Structure formats: C-alpha cells, structure tokens
Amino acid sequence: MTAAETASNGSSAAGPNPLAPIIWLAEAFWQYKWLVMTVMAAGVVAAATLAGRLPNVYTAAGLVEIDPGRDDILAQRQTNSGYIPPETVTETEVQVIQSSTVLERVAQELESRQPGTAAATSGATAADGGAAQAEMVSELQKHLRVQPTGRSYVVEVSFSGRDPRFAADVVNAVMRQYLQLDIDAQRDQANETIAQVSERLDELRTNLDERERAVEEFRATNRITESAGTTMLSEQIAQMNEELIRAQSALAQARAASDLRGAAAEAIPEVVASPLIQELRGQEAIQERTVSELSAMYRPTHPRLIQAEEALQAIRGTIASETRKIVESLGTTANVQTERVATLEGQIEAMRDRLNEQREAEIALRRLEREVDAAQRVYEVLLNRYREVQGTAGLERPDGRIVAAAVAPTAPSGPKRILVVAGGGILSGAVAFALVLGIALVDQRLRTRSDVTRTVGIAPLATVPPVPSTSRLFSGFRVRRRNAAFAEAITHLRAALVLRAGGREPTIVAMTAPDDGVGHADLLTALGQACAIAGDVTVLMDANFSRPSIHNRLGGHNEFGVSDLVMMGGEVDAALQIDRYTPLNFLAAGRQTDPSLYRASSMGALIDALYHRFDVVLINLPPIVERPDAQALAAEAEVVAIAAKAGLTSRRELLETVQTLRFVGPGLPLATVLIRR
C-alpha cells in the first residue's frame, strides 16, 4: 500500500474534524475579507453620519420616597400588617406613577401652565385638544422612566427630552400629581366612609329605638320593677318558710300531746306548765300529808280521815279534769296547726312558682338589655368614627414625599454617539456575516479539508500554502514565515507521496488539477526541489503540452522536451535540464501539442527509462477533464495526486476530475492536496 493510500485511510478512520465548520467559515471570511471590510466600513460611516445628525437629549431626574408604614391622620388607613419588603411596595407604586391616570393629570397641569404644550409635544392641531392630550400622554409614557433605587422605598423618576426645562417640569409634575392622586384617593375614601357610616348610623339608631321599646314593653308585661325584681319574692318566701317551720313545730307538739292519755298526759309540757295544775299539785301534796297523818292517828272509818280522803280525791279529780281539758285543747290546736301548715305550704309553693316565672322573665329581660347594650355600643363606635372622619376631612397626607425635585440639566445625556457608531459597526458586521454566509452556502467552491473529503471521499494528504513567489523584492518577516510554512507543508507532502514504508525503489508520482489556474505545476515543482534537496535523484517531467510552465519556474527552455522525444525520438539526456538552485533534473514539455502523444508507445518507453534511472519521477499532467488522453499517462504512475485550490476549485470540478481518473482503473491510487489561498 502506498503512502497516499495509508494517509487517506488513516484520515478516514480518524473521523470528521469537529472544527471543520469553524475552519470552513473562517476561510470563507478570509476569502471575502474585502467584502466584509467594505460592508462594515459603510455601516460605521452611516452610523457616524446618523449619530452626528441626532439632536441632543436632556434627562432630568427626581426622587420620591414611598413610606407605607407612616401613621396617617385618617384612622381607617392605619394598618399593622407587619414588615413589607421595599421591592413589593416600589414595584406597585412604579406602575401607579407610570399609569395613564397620573400622566393625564400631568398633561392637564402642563397645559394649564403653558397653553399649547400638548399640541406642541404631540404634533396635533390645537383644535383637537383631546387627541393632542392623548398623544402627549403617549409621548410622556414613551420617554418617562421610573425605577426603584436599590432595596429602598425611594423611586427615581426621570424624563428625557430635547428641552431641559420641559424635562424637569415633567418630572416635578409627575411626582406632584402622583402624591396628589394619593391625597384625592384618601379624600374620596373619607367621603365614601362618611356616607356609609351615616347611612349605617340611621339604621342602628332605628334598631336601637325598637329594642329599647321592646325592653320596656316586656318589663311592663311581666310586671318587673327596676328596684324590686326577684329579691322581694325571695325575702317573702324566706319569711314564710320561718313561719312554716314554727307552725310545723307547734303541730308536732300538739299532735304529741293529743296522742298522750292517762298518766302519760300529766307529762305533757302544757299540763306540767299549767299554773292551775301546779297549784292543784301543791294542794294534792298538802292533802296527801294530811291523809297520811290522819291515817296514822285514826282508823279508816274515822270521819275526819274519810273527809280528808274525800278532799284528796276531789283535788285529784280536779287535776284529772284540768288535764283532760288541756289535752282536749291540744287536740284542737293540732287541727288548727295542721290547717295553718297546709296553708303556708300552699302559699310558699305559689310564691316559688311566681319566683321561677319572675326569674325566667328577668333572664329574658337581661338578654334584651344585653342586645340593647350591644346595639348601643356599636352605635356609639360608629358615631365616634363618624365624628372622627368628619373632623379629619381636609387633613389628608400622601404616603410619600418628594426627596429631591428635578432641576433642568445643563449637559445633554444623549444620544450616546459612540454607542450608535458601535451599533452600526455591529449591525454592519452582522449583515456582512449573513452576506458572507449566504454567499458561502451558495458558492460551491472548496475551502476546507472536510469539503474535499465530503465531495470525493478522499481526505487531502496535506494542506499547503500558496507557492511562494520567486521575487526577492519583498523578503520581510511575514514572507519568511510564509516560506517556512510552505516548506513544512512540502516536507509533509513528500513524506506522504514519495517515501514508502521501507525500501528505496523508484516512485512515479503524477499530479493534475481541475484546471491550470490551481497552480499544481508550481506545487509539483516545489515538491521536486524538496526531493532533490533531500538526496533523492529526482526528475520532473512536464506533460502539459498545451500550457507548459515548468521550464519558466526552473529557469530552463522549451526548445526540446518530452513531446519532441516522444514524436521524434532521441536520447533522454538531450532533453534533460537541471534547476539552477537545486540538483533537480527536469524535462520541459516541448513544442508538440498533439494529444495522441499521451498514448504513444514511445511515451511508455520514456517513462520506463526515467523509472530505471531516477529514484523519484514526477509527472506534471494537464487537467484530465480537458485532456482525457492524458489518462494513459496517469495509468503509468504509482499514485496520482489531484490538486485543488481553496476558494477557487468547485466541488463539481473536483468530482469530475476524480470520476474521470476512475475510468483508468479501479486500482489506480488517488490522493488529493488542498492549496490554501
């Protein structure tokens, strides 16, 4: 396998280069660099002209502070909702400041101070005042800028215009009207509150009167006095309970006494406590002593003893009679006490029922009174609120203040002419980029190695710079760098085409191109010089009979060359020439131009003679598509290199060249070389 085949297979195995699109785009820009520079220069000049004609713009700014936590005179606006982040408040107020409501007020204020301002600002006719004002509001919104200043409650209001005094007036008017809008909103809220509270007071007053009348009617219906109530009934029940207890005690005593009979009756307290019984008991004791004395003195039949005993019996009979009377009296008393106890119990039960009814009525009364008190308190609260709102009417204050009023700027804030020019450059650069990209996409010319690989499936062996000029007028640093890069690329190309893995057998390399403008003859000449300098016995044969050029570059002549040898015969040495700078041998094309010479048998004999005499044989072929007869000479080479020039050779031309060479034979090794512009 040749070095060209090895390099081609290696490149295919390595896969596509991920930077290929970037390289392709860079080369496209380099190819159209003058177009890019022209478009960008035109854009910058146009932007600079426009920036010079733009009028000056003046920006005035002012600061307004928003204080949502400030105590307000109006109590209804005092809220305690905790910490409020500044950005939450300022974002909302920024929208309010920029609203059409505030700006309409600003337009009216400016129009009232300077009639005709709306028409001058909007460009509308003075007769159409509504349209002029609406247009002015639109202009104010367009040039007004409101933004918070960091994490604070301060908002910056700025306006840009051509008149510095007008810009300052607009900013101050916006801040004043914003604060005035807050005051008007508070005043409207206060008036609305007064109306609502007044209506509610009338309803509460009517409801309170109805409830008070209901309380009085209930008290009169249930005969509840404010001073007595259930206390008097409770005292009466307590007194009657005491009387009932005494009556029950008397009844118990009377029943106990009436139940006693005989001797047991004498133990009744009433009997014992009776003065008459006590006196009779005394008489009985005296008479018993008398009987006892007489019994000791006389016989039982003695008249005095009998008389004394009769007197004792009479006393005892009187005691028994008085005892019976007392017992009978106690029985009558028990009946009376029974009736009294029953009467007292009935009265107490009736009074308890009445007390319960009175208590239920008082509970209902207290409920009604509580309702009256609640209605009274609500009425008093609303009444105080009504008086408070009425007292604070006209004392409203806004939730903010003007921290810094706007002053007329002395220096313009715009336009930023440098930014305009830079923007023009960027825009023109984008246009140039789009233009170059579009041209590059439409243009089918090759630019990168990946383009060659995608077109013909053969990766270039090398990408070489343009062949350096032989002129020594410009031999500066850049030229030396370009020559060094070319020398390195030629060395790499020699290693890929000429050198083989092991061995020093002769090598025949042919090179062609889609057209002569690619410069493959110059490239092949440089390759031959590199081989000769490296020690290879090299011969360069110019087979481009229609356009010979090798002898011009190597300083020779074209009087007798390859075509002459093939047609007329002769020794090779008669046509051989030597490069004046290197030991490179070369054969000029000669003066014959017959295409049939490529297929002549003497052409094959010439190639064989060169093959056996030189280590490296380089053949400069004409464009194969233009000279199909040269395919016969290409078949004599061990490898055919096809040169393509970036930005010049099209994909179609390269593909036609490769397809033409494929007709020579499937085994013909092909390689590609890309020449940069």
Topology, pairings included?
Layout: H1 3-14, H2 20-31, H3 33-53, E1 58-66, H4 86-97, H5 100-113, H6 117-122, H7 129-143, E2 144-148, E3 154-161, H8 164-221, H9 230-259, H10 263-266, H11 269-273, H12 275-297, H13 303-392, E4 400-404, H14 417-442, H15 449-456, E5 460-464, H16 477-497, E6 507-512, H17 520-533, E7 538-542, H18 550-554, H19 562-568, E8 576-578, E9 585-587, H20 601-613, E10 616-620, H21 631-634, E11 639-645, H22 651-662, E12 670-675
Parallel strand pairs: 5-12, 6-10, 6-11, 7-9, 7-10, 11-12
Antiparallel strand pairs: 1-3, 1-4, 2-3, 8-9
Key words describing this protein structure:
single chain, alpha/beta, eight-stranded mixed sheet, 22 helices
How would you sum up this structure, described in words?
With 677 residues, this protein is α/β, with parallel strands linked by helices. Helix content is 61%, strand content 10%. The chain has an eight-stranded mixed β-sheet with strand order 5-12-11-6-10-7-9-8, with helices on both faces. A hairpin with a 6-residue loop joins strand 8 and strand 9. It is elongated, with a radius of gyration of 69 Å. The protein starts with a helix and ends with a strand.
